[in-house]
Specification:
With about 575 residues, the chain is α+β, with helices and mostly antiparallel strands. It folds into four domains: about 120 residues; about 80 residues; about 250 residues, paralog of FGE (formylglycine-generating enzyme) (Alpha-Beta Complex); about 70 residues, no CATH class. About 40% of the residues lie in helices and about 5% in strands.
Amino acid sequence: MEPKSALEQNIRCAYRLIVEYEHQRSLAEDPKAKLRCEEEINEQWALIERWVPDYLRICQQSEERPPEDIQQIIVSRGLDSTVPIRVVSTPENAPKVHTGSLSPTPPTIQEPPETPEAVDVALSETSEKPHRDVSICHPEPEVYASYAAGLRRLRQHLGPGHPRYSDALAYEQRLSENIARSRLHGDTETRRAERSEIIGHLNELASSAVGTPFNELCSIADEPTSEPYPDVPATILIPAGPFRMGSSKNSEAYDNEKPCHEVELQGYRIGHYPVTNAQYARFLADNPNHPVPYADEARARSYNWDPQSRTYPEGKADHPVVLVSWHDAEAYCDWLSQVIRHHYRLPTEEEWEKAARGGFPDRRRYPWGDEWQPGYCNVQELGRNGTTSVHEFEQINRSPFGVVDMAGNVWEWTASRYEPYPGSPHEGPHYGQSRRVVRGGSWRSDPQGVRISCRGRYEPDARRPYLGFRVALDARVETMGTASQQKTKERPERADTSAQMLHSASKEVPVEVIDRSALRQNLTTYFNASELRTLCFDLNVDYDSLQGEGKGDKARELVAYMERHGRISELVEACKRLYPKVTW
């Protein structure tokens, strides 16, 4: 299937789910069930908004017009478009979809006209143009590459032993998250302002530490990379809620996939892509005694790293790292947790499957839908006979949440032991032992082996040229504590850094002695907009849902929100960890 047809199919499928969720919401009596449906509706609209810009660019390049039903969806959302689109009135009996503050009345799904000529005639009947939101754009990849090169040079100047090295990594993570959101949902004024704040911090850090502003490091840096920040894995938020796990299709499901059952999960974040060779190289650079990916066997020859130079195979920087054991993957997560100061880990198999399938009631068999599509991912029938870039199938091998490369390319380690599902009569020979579950299939698999529900298992010390991993972390990001509280081994060169001191533990402040007015004023005074957004993320509060436009309004609403939910002391403690010298 061509990319244009695939995007049309995705947009239609997302809209059909919107209609289905709206129907369920109208029948639900439980307020939590209604809220869950509304969250799913908004999530599907977010996916449509991400797909439309790419789809319209393809239409422009091919000089083709969008089908009428796709036009209606685009116009109903007021999406950015340079393609003339016919505004079609919505029939009176069209389903009314609740989408919160984002929702004009959505269109009905219609079959596209039978011929391209029919589309041209329809478009010529109106001169109306859709609203163009000039605040949404998609920056050029060269901008990302220059930032990546500047950060790479900054790290080279600092070195792991520098007291501000961990600060540089923290800013890099924030910038990576910002750019990942901009790539997925468009580069809004808010995201540009946040990015400007982060780069301001990087300019100050680079000027004081190496004598050259960060912007200059970007302009003189060599060798731009195709990945925005190849050293820090970007992650995607998977919202809390239930999903269907396993398979109910008895004709194709293996015994260990049964029975299909509902699982409720808290919110979490999962790697946008599998961890790449370039990202894993940073871990090895900081851990010179950790063995490189290597296996003394013929099938691993083209994936073995050079044990002397500790470099990955040429041309595979953005390929998923392979020949790594479960213990290697755990060690990488521990290292990343220490340098970024957030608790990274492997996803559980439940988290992996929800990220690939989507929330309740989705039962799709593959990340893109229910039907197998040749050429959508790297499997045996494609004939590549090896790993591919994690970006190669980015536009089509994508889950409903936007997670990429979850079918084929490489099997992925999870944190879970291999156990039977609840209520399963199946008695496998390896249940309850040391084997860990792997998911996703690989370049050696057939379509049956890359279904979302398919479960593999390996001993934790296994290393294979088709076995990699991706990271995960809790949605409410746990900030690393003091050195004595960290689960990873202490790194002496960071033991006395100011960054660690900011996160030292403190006693809870009694609610009755908290001055709310002073708290609001201090939040406005000491936090810039970007830092306030990060604080909300750490507290698991949706920054964008707080009323008001300015920083002062957001600070006032954050205090009111935490007060309403009995979490005002938690807010104070978070502020004290970040600014311990301020009287909160």
